[in-house]
């Protein structure tokens, strides 16, 4: 499960990654070299490797993975897509972010699979049975813009992403987890779905 790092971080705070290990406590860890960060946007795991997404000072997004001590940048990320979420299981790995951006991670690269939703993808889940879910928000959910219009999308057998039938939420959705296509959990901001 990935972690969305909310908001744009000030660049003086964006250049740090810390790692906790029992017996050593919290220590500074290495970020990818050769890039000047504007901000980091995601930290998570993809198939057991550490995954880190961020935007450089030229406002170009990047995605790296690290299985040992060396970071590797993944090819195929569109220049308009900032990443916020990651999820994987034994069979598939996904990253997602701004404006419906969604990519399947395979063979060291990214294959675009946009959700079709114009909202930002803030959370992803992949269940052991291969079913996948995405939480998106697309602007104002009410006349006063107090809440975001939240959507829960599911990936169909044909690979298309579409809203889950019969689902609507008046409040922002924060996270999704799935045990199977028929066993899904959601966390919401207001406690209402």
What would you call the structural class? mainly beta
Please give the number of β-strands: 17
- Bin the strand percentage: over 45%
Residues in helix, %: under 10%
Mind summarizing the main beta sheet? Answer: 5 strands, antiparallel
Along the chain, the helix and strand elements come as: EEEEEEEEEEEEEEEEE
Strand order of the largest sheet: 1-4-5-6-7
Question: What is the CA-CA span between the terminal residues?
Answer: 22 Å
Question: How is the quaternary structure best described?
Answer: single chain
Give Rg in angstroms. 17 Å
Instruction: Tell me the number of helical segments per DSSP (H or I, 4 or more residues long).
Output: 0
Name the overall outline: globular
Mean model confidence by pLDDT: 80
Show unreliable segments.
1-14, 140-147
